[in-house]
From TrEMBL:
NCBIfam families: PRK02237.1. HAMAP family: UPF0060. It is a multi-pass membrane protein. Its main location: membrane. Belongs to the UPF0060 family. This is Uncharacterized protein. InterPro entries: EmrE-like (IPR037185), UPF0060 (IPR003844). The chain crosses the membrane at residues 7-27, 33-50, 62-79, 91-108.
């Protein structure tokens, strides 16, 4: 259950961080205004909250592993929201990032 919980928390954190950054981007670069920017700031705050709920207690480990989730999530967001089409190198890089997440977070460690 801890593995499932950890993965769900990573996905939720990615949705809030990437979504928040996208909202700020829309507010500033696409001139959609302060409401979009404010919603983005709130979403970014929620990202930080979800990151603290990870079962592992090591901040550096969580954020390092989350970096790989962020890479994959950003490519997926771009595909779904902006019509971005990753090339094979994007996909290879994303898979390498997920492998890094697995090693950092879920490799067996002595108790």
């Amino acid at each position: 259950m801890t593995l499932t919980r950890s993965i769900i928390l990573f996905v939720a954190a990615a949705l809030f961080e990437i979504g928040g950054a996208w909202l700020v981007w829309q507010g500033v670069r696409e001139h959609k205004g302060w409401i979009w920017i404010g919603a983005g700031v709130v979403a970014l705050g929620l990202y930080g909250f979800f990151a603290t709920l990870q079962p592992d207690a090591h901040f550096g480990r969580i954020l390092a592993a989350y970096g790989g989730v962020f890479v994959v999530g950003s490519l997926a967001w771009g595909m779904v929201v902006d019509g971005f089409r990753p090339d094979r190198w994007d996909v290879v890089g994303a898979l390498l990032c997920l492998a890094g997440v697995a090693v950092i977070m879920y490799a067996p460690r002595p108790a």
